[in-house]
Amino acid sequence: MGIHESGEMYLETILLLTQRNGSVRSVEVAAELGYSKPSVSRAMNILKTGGFITVEKPGYIYLTETGAQRAAEIHGRHKLITAFLSSSLGVDKALAERDACRIEHIISEETVTAMRSYIKANHSAPDME
Predict the structure, then answer these.
(1) pLDDT tens digits along 44-99
(2) pTM higher than 0.70, yes or no?
(3) Helix (H) or strand (E) holding 104
(4) CA distance to 7, 32, 61, 63, 104, per residue, from 45 (Å)
(5) Which of 52, 86, 97, 101 would be 47's cystine partner, CB 3.0–4.6 Å?
(6) Is the dihedral of CA 70, 64, 6, 20 positive or negative?
(7) Backbone torsions φ then ψ of 3, nearest 5 degrees
(8) Residue 124 has what pLDDT?
(9) Is the CATH number of domain 5-64 1.20.140.10?
(10) Which CATH number fits domain 70-124: 3.40.50, 1.10.260, 2.60.290, 1.10.60?
């Protein structure tokens, strides 16, 4: 099943909140993204139906293996694009972060591969592996 940009944002946020806090509930996702609780609830139902997450009582959200893999791919692209924009092009780190957040959802795998190769050849970026 394909996933839309908003679904990717939710998966990445669940991954990061899990890494930061150890557990995640919808209210934390809503706070992190600045979305309403009903919007997050609808998105969680879509991700659950798609097999990307499970929701356990009392509302804890867990990434499935598929969801965790997809979230890791998205976050990896985010880090790569941020590094490319800041290290290779000299874009301010904060701006690179914001731009990467938007670009990561539409960039082709061919371009990601080219960026990764360029960074490996021209910069030391250990967090890009």
Answers:
(1) 999 999 999 999 988 999 999 999 999 999 999 999 999 999 988 999 999 999 99
(2) yes
(3) none
(4) 11, 18, 11, 13, 23
(5) 52
(6) negative
(7) -135, 140
(8) 62
(9) no
(10) 1.10.60
